Amino acid sequence: MTTTYIHHSCFLVETTTCYYLFDYEKGALPAMDVTKPIFVLSSHAHHDHYNADVFMMLREQGMQRVYAILSSDIKAPADVDVMQVSPNREYQLCFGQKLITFRSTDVGVAFLIEDNGEIIYHAGDLNDWVWEGESDAYNEQMTADYRGQIDLLAKFLNGRTIDVAFVVLDPRQEKNYDRGLCYFLEHVSVVKVYPMHYWGKPEVMDAFIKAHPKYQAYIGKTE
């Protein structure tokens, strides 16, 4: 399995089966094997997680088998093979992979993919979105909702390990920036986690490692 960071929350993962392109917004795509299938996954319709131009870009690159997996809040393009998905559901993909969705604490879904024994997780905007200035009731409900979904993820995994995960680490949350990633690492077994959604401030990864050195070996730095 190989992982390539594109931009913001967008990553390209290649397995022996296919490519998975998560939450494309913008950025150059690397050269790929045009005969290998690619799944374009978008967790929700926000502009920083979905850009329909990606399908034209893939056609121009010569990709011969392009499939889309889009959250149900996204208007599906007419000229693409699309599966639209809802939260907390299980789906079978066309090459035998299993897809499980989780409910975002913002909009849309998070993705868990099982592909020939390898497991990939992309959080979308599923995060513990606690903010200074919000009410205690709002923040407490947010934390409960987030932890409920991560607990469901851990229960589904049943002790198995995620090979690669993409999880929000957003510096706009100020002192609360690490809440979601810490809870994830405390409750889910994972080989490598790539922080994302950090709005052009990659130094937040160094801050996280400095604050939580016990997790350093798990963090894959994107830039």
Descriptive terms for the model:
223 residues, alpha/beta, six-stranded mixed β-sheet
What does this protein look like?
The protein has a six-stranded mixed sheet, covered by helices on one side. Helix 2 (136-157) packs parallel to helix 3. The chain has four helices and twelve strands; from the N terminus they run E-E-E-E-H-E-E-E-E-E-E-H-E-H-E-H. It is of the alpha/beta class.
Put simply, the count of helices is 4
Biggest β-sheet strands, sense, barrel: 6 strands, mixed
Order of helical and strand elements? EEEEHEEEEEEHEHEH
Strand content: 25-35%
| Total strand segments | 12
Which secondary-structure class do the elements indicate? alpha/beta
Flag low-confidence runs.
none
The overall pLDDT average reads 97
Distance between the termini: 19 Å
Write a concise synopsis of the structure shown.
The protein has 223 residues and is an alpha/beta fold. Helix content is 22%, strand content 30%.
Secondary structure layout:
Blueprint: E1 2-7, E2 10-14, E3 19-22, E4 38-42, H1 53-61, E5 66-71, E6 81-85, E7 90-92, E8 98-103, E9 109-115, E10 118-122, H2 136-157, E11 162-168, H3 179-187, E12 190-196, H4 203-211
